[in-house]
Design brief:
Length: 87
Amino acid sequence: MTARYALPPSRTLADITANALLADCGECWPGPGVPCKGGGMHVARLARARRRGLLSAEDMTIVVAAVIASMVPVIVTSGADETAVAA
Ligand SMILES: [Zn+2]
């Protein structure tokens, strides 16, 4: 007999940020339960919530995907002097 396993449903970003709101934010310091200043939620708060066990590794994968999606126009550099012209 083959065992079948169902994957647990992924949580929404709204569920995740609701849990993260229980942590304080090390960026704007509103305190637990109080939203971050300026709307949205600082990544620092989400990371703090993960360290405190309020978020799972799967939750953080969803968070990172959302952060990357919001950064599409951001340019990633190699760290080298990219203004130099190759000879
Ligand atoms: Zn904040």
